[in-house]
Design a protein that fits this description.
Number of domains: 1
CATH superfamily: Vaccinia Virus protein VP39
Order of helices and strands: HHHEHEHEEHEEEHEEEE
Distance between the termini: 35 Å
CATH topology: Rossmann fold
Number of strands: 11
Number of helices: 7
Strand order of the largest sheet: 3-2-1-4-5-11-8
Bound molecules: S-adenosylmethionine
CATH class: Alpha Beta
Strand content: 25-35%
CATH architecture: 3-Layer(aba) Sandwich
Length: 262
């Protein structure tokens, strides 16, 4: 199965719905230019004069937010609809220190000849990539010596469950591609969208070892019992930008972060 073709259609179709969603609240974003969450903000240093590569940037809210903190940002996504919307959003917000490239993560070394102080990638990214060895090599390729990866992601524990978080559906160590028929999207479960998705679950050890094998040093690894996004079924809010599965309370990790340096 051509996972790139199938997932590109899935993500292209989501863009218009996401742009108009309460979840992304783009109207408010255009005013604030601030979409980053406390977890990643706590890991980012002073971004003034820093060159940041933002992998899987979707329609650019976080890329523009990074630029707003003083960085020169390159956002990358394989969805042409997302990149079109990201360029439009940069224009609307008059953000001149951001540019966008439409490209598959694995193809990027053939499309871009530059090194960066920071590679940034967060929430819902690696699950779309089958091979983390290749992913980590791309990150190492684009980091300057001394540069840092800032990575925040949903915890693989979360992806073990069924949609209602009532039963374990996949092994933590599941290696096969997960092929699902999806209706709606995380910003609106009733949206008129119907697509196939192909994704992979990656245990934390696979992520860490891929980064180490690509020559990076792990500086920190943290796990958090809340998600900044209300994007799963049966969530309750327990603080500002803090959500968790109501019946699982603080018993499971929702999100984790890694800082690694070259
Ligand atoms: C959940 S979104 C990431 C959102 C992110 N938290 C942000 O900054 O807005 C996942 C993104 O990954 C992109 N994507 C999926 N597979 C990709 C690939 N192989 N190469 C590049 N982008 C990809 C999708 O188009 C989508 O925009």
């Amino acid at each position: 199965m051509d996972y790139l073709k199938i997932n590109k259609k899935l993500w292209n179709d989501k863009v218009a719905v996401h742009l108009n969603s309460d979840f992304y609240d783009n109207e408010n974003f255009i005013r604030t230019k601030a979409s980053l969450n406390p977890y990643e903000l706590a890991l980012l240093g002073d971004l003034r004069q820093q060159h940041v590569l933002h992998l899987q940037c979707h329609f650019g809210q976080d890329s523009i937010s990074l630029a707003q903190l003083g960085a020169r940002v390159t956002g990358v996504d394989f969805s042409d609809k997302a990149i079109e919307a990201a360029r439009q959003l940069a224009d609307t917000t008059r953000t001149e220190t951001v540019d966008f490239i439409c490209c598959d993560v694995y193809e990027l070394p053939r499309q871009l000849d530059k090194q960066f102080d920071v590679v940034f990638t967060t929430y819902g990214t690696i699950g779309w990539l089958p091979d983390l060895t290749k992913w980590a090599e791309v990150i190492a390729h684009f980091l300057k010596p001394g540069g840092q990866l800032i990575f925040v992601e949903f915890h693989p524990f979360v992806w073990m469950f069924d949609e209602d978080f009532k039963q374990i559906r996949y092994s933590y160590f599941n290696k096969q591609a997960i092929v699902e028929e999806e209706t709606g999207t995380y910003t609106d479960r009733n949206a008129a969208l119907q697509n196939t998705s192909i994704s992979w679950n990656h245990p934390v050890s696979e992520v860490v070892n891929a980064l180490i094998n690509a020559g990076l040093s792990i500086r920190s690894l943290s796990e958090y019992d809340t998600s900044p996004y209300n994007c799963f079924k049966n969530m309750e809010q327990v603080g500002i930008k803090q959500y968790r599965i109501a019946h699982l309370a603080d018993h499971i990790p929702m999100v984790y972060s890694i800082v690694a340096s070259k």
